[in-house]
Amino acid sequence: MPIVQLYDTTLRDGAQQEGISFSVEDKLKIAQKLDELGIDFIEGGWPGSNPKDTEFFSRARDLKLSQAFLVAFGSTRRPNGSVEKDINLQALLEAGTSVVTLVGKAWDKQVTHVLETTLAENLGMISDSINYLKSKGLRVFFDAEHFFDGYSANPEYALQVVEGAARAGAECIILCDTNGGTLPQQIVAAIKAVQGVASVPLGIHAHNDADLAVANSLAAVEAGAVQVQGTINGYGERCGNANLCSIIPNLKIKMGIDCISDEQLSKLNNISRYVSELANLPHPGSLPYVGAHAFTHKGGLHVSALTRWQDSYQHIDPGIVGNQPNVIVSELSGKASIIYKAKQRKVPIPGDEEVKEVLDRVKLLESQGFQYDSAEASFDLLLHRVQPGYHPPFELVDFMIVVEKRRRLPTIGNQEEPLSEATIKVKVDDRIVHTAAEGDGPVNALDQALRKALVQFYPDLTVVELTDYKVRILEETAGTASQVRVLIESSDGKERWRTVGSSTNIIEASWLALADSIEYWLIKQAGKEKS
């Protein structure tokens, strides 16, 4: 079984993605998590390029890493310069890591058009820089930037770059598909050519511009590469880097390469989400292995088979990577989906007649714009409402909303906000409560009025708050008469839940989602009290 080193560059290459800006504290936390995952080399950044990366390497000396080596990244010396006076190389030495990665050009046009120097000088820059850092006792990896494009355009020179880096003592030479446009078969052919002229260990650094970064990385390993570079969740500039959250399980599960332990692999899903949280980005549901949708089933035929054989529509057991299966109830569902979902959500399992009633109800409501994929609390209520003897904690009698906007001459900095007031009547047991409240807009006013009416019966309701409110127009061609879907997320400080409403009236759609949110929480609390 070949040994494959895992090299993570989330903290440098991944941080170049639009919208990502890790703090030093974020980077330290992520480095610790990557070590827990079993990553061999963690590229911390480019010391000297910015104050943040310099501070990171200073503080990273106190990290307690159990397995990983921290790596500092930098470029070769400048054209016609001295290694002793090169600020990039000096910053690498000051970073204090035992391993450094140098990047140098492997494409002749990059040398002449970007560096604006000669091909011979570029070879000297590479060998001088590697020799210098080796003389200081450092382990040196060499990133042959644009290697595959360079090999395609001028194979003789691209191979000279690799040979020169190998002679200078690079421990591993990483072949980079920097522009991300190379095909897997081209990766393999180029690696075979390199192996014909140099016996140095090779690595792969792939970008995803042609959506092939993971495939190219695996093809490189098949061809003999012993180091794979990538980022968590595939973060990176343009279309991103090779996604380690896909590469790792493919290496271990599909290719039999024991790159991390089983226990470490089970942490993959949590670490993927942890990094996305620190990156302040939504966790993509469609990510293979670790996405929320990776093992989600919607079609009734799929769910029916799944209840008989868990592996019928799943290529692995989701638990291996710390994920779990999920079933979406929709108009495509069958009875098996309803029963599966009830078990999963720990809601009382309905009988045959009730299952049919829920299924018919889901299909009718989804035809009217409701969608339960992301509103499982509303689906739970459908299951509760068909239970014999179910009594809702409150019922709407009616509500009215007034929005008043007084006309006045516009003056700078003195714009009066519209006044929103909601009047509501709700029934709790046999008592009708009539109350009113103002709010920042009609939906907020309705929310405040409902809480004001219910809190005298359910005082703990004060902990519930609306944390997100989304509106989607479903029929844009209908203009202001369009069907709208409202999705509300709520929280009580311990858990979050989502509910949905749909109508041609945005206020009614908001009410349906809002009322479901409150009813769901009250039912959950009643269930806890009984248990």
Classify the fold: give the CATH topology of the largest domain.
Answer: TIM Barrel
> What is the C-alpha radius of gyration, as a whole number of Å?
30 Å
Distance between the termini: 52 Å
- Class by helix and strand content? alpha/beta
For this entry, give a set of tags:
531 residues; alpha/beta; TIM Barrel; Double Stranded RNA Binding Domain; 3 domains; 8-stranded parallel barrel; 3-stranded antiparallel beta sheet; 16 strands; 19% strand
Q: Would you give an account of this structure?
A:
- The chain has about 525 residues and is an alpha/beta fold.
- The protein folds into 3 domains: about 5-260, Aldolase class I (TIM Barrel), CATH 3.20.20; about 295-380, no CATH class; about 395-410 and about 415-455, Double Stranded RNA Binding Domain.
- Helices cover about 40% and strands about 20% of the residues.
- The protein is built from 18 helices and 16 strands.
- The strands form 4 sheets. Strands 1-2-3-4-5-6-7-8 form an 8-stranded parallel beta barrel, surrounded by 9 helices. A 3-stranded antiparallel beta sheet has the order 11-12-13, covered by helices on one side.
- β3, α3 and β4 (about 100-105) form a beta-alpha-beta unit.
- α8 runs parallel beside α9 (about 215-225).
- It is elongated and about 90 Å long.
- The two termini are about 50 Å apart.
- The mean pLDDT is about 90.
Summary?
The chain is of the alpha/beta class. It has 18 helices and 16 strands.
